[in-house]
Amino acid sequence: MTQKCKVAIVGSTGYGGVELIRFLYLHPHVEITSVISSSTSGVSIAEGFPHLTGIVDQKLDGIDIVKMAEEVDLVFTATPSGVSTKLVPQLIDAGLKVIDLSGDFRLTDGAEYEAWYKHSPAEDIYLDQAVYGLSEIYGENAAGASFISNPGCYPTATLLGLIPAIKAGLIDHRSIIIDAKSGVSGAGRGASLSFHYPEMNENFKAYKVNKHQHIPEIEQVLSDQAGEPVTVTFTTHLVPMTRGIMSTMYAPLKGEYTDQDFIDVYKQYYENRSFVRIREKGIWPATKEVFASNYCDIGFAVDKRTGRVTIISVIDNIVKGAAGQAIQNLNLMMGWDEQTGLNFLPVYP
Amino acid sequence: MTQKCKVAIVGSTGYGGVELIRFLYLHPHVEITSVISSSTSGVSIAEGFPHLTGIVDQKLDGIDIVKMAEEVDLVFTATPSGVSTKLVPQLIDAGLKVIDLSGDFRLTDGAEYEAWYKHSPAEDIYLDQAVYGLSEIYGENAAGASFISNPGCYPTATLLGLIPAIKAGLIDHRSIIIDAKSGVSGAGRGASLSFHYPEMNENFKAYKVNKHQHIPEIEQVLSDQAGEPVTVTFTTHLVPMTRGIMSTMYAPLKGEYTDQDFIDVYKQYYENRSFVRIREKGIWPATKEVFASNYCDIGFAVDKRTGRVTIISVIDNIVKGAAGQAIQNLNLMMGWDEQTGLNFLPVYP
Amino acid sequence: MTQKCKVAIVGSTGYGGVELIRFLYLHPHVEITSVISSSTSGVSIAEGFPHLTGIVDQKLDGIDIVKMAEEVDLVFTATPSGVSTKLVPQLIDAGLKVIDLSGDFRLTDGAEYEAWYKHSPAEDIYLDQAVYGLSEIYGENAAGASFISNPGCYPTATLLGLIPAIKAGLIDHRSIIIDAKSGVSGAGRGASLSFHYPEMNENFKAYKVNKHQHIPEIEQVLSDQAGEPVTVTFTTHLVPMTRGIMSTMYAPLKGEYTDQDFIDVYKQYYENRSFVRIREKGIWPATKEVFASNYCDIGFAVDKRTGRVTIISVIDNIVKGAAGQAIQNLNLMMGWDEQTGLNFLPVYP
Amino acid sequence: MTQKCKVAIVGSTGYGGVELIRFLYLHPHVEITSVISSSTSGVSIAEGFPHLTGIVDQKLDGIDIVKMAEEVDLVFTATPSGVSTKLVPQLIDAGLKVIDLSGDFRLTDGAEYEAWYKHSPAEDIYLDQAVYGLSEIYGENAAGASFISNPGCYPTATLLGLIPAIKAGLIDHRSIIIDAKSGVSGAGRGASLSFHYPEMNENFKAYKVNKHQHIPEIEQVLSDQAGEPVTVTFTTHLVPMTRGIMSTMYAPLKGEYTDQDFIDVYKQYYENRSFVRIREKGIWPATKEVFASNYCDIGFAVDKRTGRVTIISVIDNIVKGAAGQAIQNLNLMMGWDEQTGLNFLPVYP
């Protein structure tokens, strides 16, 4: 690795962007050439994020495609949905590699995107180029790719928790219920009454019930894996904490399987993957056990009484659910070990 | 009401006991004659609970059945499971009215109790006398009763959220999944590593998956209401907050029902009840909206795509889930308005 | 008390306003005639505060002085600083009694107000009429008053903690340092980045160091009590919690006084007051011990090594620091027992 | 660096021990040879700390001095006060290098230790060998040392915040008041009622006022720096958060100094140090800005009105206040760059 990969981060003043900086700053093969924010260009990034003072305090640039094309190899777009639809095509056309953290290129069907996101979709020509970067499932597609669409936080926790059981025929994919819970950072850095500290502290809320834009993403991937259309019931809740997602998933068993059957299937499925950890029988992961790390931890509870299994999957929504997986995708894209620059232990307690 | 009802509270140093004191202290028809703790008798209750300093700082008594029989009319037993089995029969035999907040008299079948609670059950002769005090459902049984078994916190939130839909035939009771979340006070006041602040803060955990002792209580009542055996999948989680329970419940629709159908059925079902509030379409209750109050708030999300409804029910676990409902039961037992001494607004924020 | 006192609450959609509703709703001598919000008139208050659903869901009115003058006896103005300066004079001129919860009438010197608040002050003619409502200190002035300026949250905790020691000559008032900490609700209901949940959670911040507008209020009262000008060093911090203020205060001892001397002096000073509680030697109050109540709890630590005392005073900032004390002032103004409608126990845990 | 330094960690199941593992696991020059816990030897460390599953799940060893002397170069003793007094001398006598994280070797005067810690002190012969490892102040002493006593968390935040001002003559060291606040992890991993989640959540508490064992440590160092005996008033509080310490410090100015004077003096004093960051005028650090990192951030507020300065210093109590500084000391001891293995950005949000 004689030459470092030069990257720009667009959307550096959001939580996804600043988490990219946390990891990429120490990534041995990457150089952060430019941190970009359309809204606050010209000021030091450390002004809005004092924790970066004296470490990363370069000035925020505005978006300048020509300049990026000259100076960097790859752009991370940690931009809101509706912004990436327009920005990413320009970056691609300028010959830049792109890893997009928005939801704008995850759904292959533009009409589906419009129905759930309430924005106009990107053009099909770009949607078609996007490689869906759920690393443990579609990692081989990432190798050598030049445009990766990074998965959503809820889909990451959910899909990693469901796919091995579906592929192994342990569960019936036609009756899956997903009860998901997220820390508040998932809502981004924009202040609003719902996330105002006194409103959110000591509170537990459901939101967007049956309406969350991650539903079609989950269904698209599950359908691909199951080989037939899959619909799911999916509920999202906010937990009074900053980071972490737990997906609690319910599915009917297709046979008299035990906890150990699930454990064995999942351990084998994720055998060569660094970031998925399977809990032993009777032990379920808690969100704090993956805090600030790229791990996804999964546990099981088979219930003979009801013929169902409960699968519990946790991630840090900003890491494995956003910036961490984006870097994992970069590693896979470039042919580096997937752990490069990501091998930090969870912060505990 | 010329003469006040004299009550003793056994287990005054737990969260259920101290919450009974908070409400009963201002109850117009009640006099707290004795606060009892077997472990710390002799010291002022305000020593362990400084928030009571100068308000309720009477000395804690030990358990003395004869004395209670002479001095009080009714005993609240906020004692741990396994203690009430032995204590309550003595109180009943001594002619005292009892409202028991433990789980020891909720299950009518002693064998079922033993299977889930891992303690020996109470004798059938006492189990048979217990009136199950889910106020909004079995309130008429409470009138004039002398021994009430107060429901569990999870069952209260869950059953109030499910029963009207089952009775009205809106949902199929054979395939119910309940994803429940509780604040940490539900675990009681006993310190342990799991509930140590640095372990529980910024953390979300599942526990006792498929094993929680409230499962048979929920199933017993649902079976009674449905007229046939009902089994449910039930998962419990801990939220990093002190108070509050949310039950998120999933069931298949039995027809093409709308949110409004649910709203109408529930509003009618709870028409004359003070403490159940039904949210309008597209609005779901949050736990903070019932904090420190006796309310149970319920909202709905019908999903045509999957043919299921999601029902969301919240309570304060220490109030409607314990002390508040116990006092509501006292009111019903004595023929007082059910709101007496309970008509406090939720504390917000 | 045959006729209830009819009140209007202006600013009903802030935390102070909604807390007034929580207490006044159950106040035996008060009727809430009108809840007023200039910004959201016409909609039900329960729309913005769902915890009030079915209890207090009257429509919010706009400000109409003539209508108020006809319909109510007294107005609580829980309006922001800079709004009350203009609104309160109109209410007074219309013959209404007023209890103002803003800071606009606390400082007797308009120039001082302008220097710290950065707004134009109210006219002197109105400033002169305002009775400063620190109930335990100036309660006698409230009796029969028609316009009360309710103290700030920090000044309430601080002044109740300092005045008895100054009056008794235990401490040197010329070298007082106050280190104050507040829950986030003190910042009001307006969302902003500083109070965005992910920014404030698991965080402890200092703010407005030496610049807080409560400094001149504290100094004005201490100067009045000491009989000579007093200046203090005063620092404010935000604690990741919703409610509660602690003032930790440092002062040089004027003699070889002990903890017990302080306890004795304070117990005597507050002998007939319901809401101040003095802790015994070696015990200091925590904010949770007054949560949601009108109490102010105070403890002491004399340090012979350094010749200083540390005085610790806690209140709930929205109750004793705002709405609760406002109602206490109403009670004193009307000649009712000061505990009327305020005798709720702290909510614990 | 051909050969790695082999280390053992005694007390691996406490928060200090597990944080040592988090950093040392990635330290380029260190190999963790043994993780030791006297209480739970024989089981995998990941059993008690599931976040380590699959990363560090070696078995916990018991204490075996002979084995350690053979296998490792250096021992970190993250053991409770009173344990290190006996253990560390044995390690030293066995020829091992030691970095002790307890308080047992910080005070040079055994009698002082006994007075504050209520344990028998270590023998003078060992106390005399201990190098006090406040890296930015006494770093030169660490070079080549074989036994370092790692500073306390409160002293670290406090001393780094005070010393440059004292050395430069900006403040009068005879009248310093320190108001300190800590996250709950500072109390260790032992569960007890005080730290039980429902008791500590939404609560702010003072504790050990004027009695904290870190007082003599602070005074010893300040006396050394000032060249004459210094006493301080020092109060400790618990904040409802897991990590972080803020010391808010008050001292009289010795002249008409400005904020900028302080900023200049501190920037110069810490010019070549990696982990101390000075905030600009009018900006004060918050604890979250150093979360999970080894930074100490400091800000100032000079108050002309009172002739005092308020100095605000924050650290992560488990990192710069314990494990991080211990590794910084290791680096200094071994002649490595002080940032080695510690150059992680704070985790934000």
Automatic annotation (TrEMBL), chains A, B, C, D:
EC number per UniProt: 1.2.1.38
Domain Semialdehyde dehydrogenase NAD-binding: 6-145
Reaction(s) catalysed (UniProt annotation): N-acetyl-L-glutamate 5-semialdehyde + phosphate + NADP(+) = N-acetyl-L-glutamyl 5-phosphate + NADPH + H(+)
Pfam families with a match to the protein in the record: Semialdhyde_dh, Semialdhyde_dhC_1
Pathway: Amino-acid biosynthesis; L-arginine biosynthesis; N(2)-acetyl-L-ornithine from L-glutamate: step 3/4
UniProt keyword DNA repair present: no
Active site: C153
GO molecular function: N-acetyl-gamma-glutamyl-phosphate reductase activity
Keywords associated with the record: Amino-acid biosynthesis, Arginine biosynthesis, Cytoplasm, NADP, Oxidoreductase
Entries under InterPro entries matching the protein: AGPR, AGPR_AS, AGPR_dimerisation_dom, AGPR_type-1, NAD(P)-bd_dom_sf, Semialdehyde_DH_NAD-bd
Locations listed in the record: Cytoplasm
Family that this chain belongs to: Belongs to the NAGSA dehydrogenase family. Type 1 subfamily.
HAMAP family given in the database record: ArgC_type1 (MF_00150)
Task of the protein: Catalyzes the NADPH-dependent reduction of N-acetyl-5-glutamyl phosphate to yield N-acetyl-L-glutamate 5-semialdehyde.
Name listed for the protein in its UniProt record: N-acetyl-gamma-glutamyl-phosphate reductase
Lineage: Bacteria, Bacillati, Bacillota, Bacilli, Bacillales
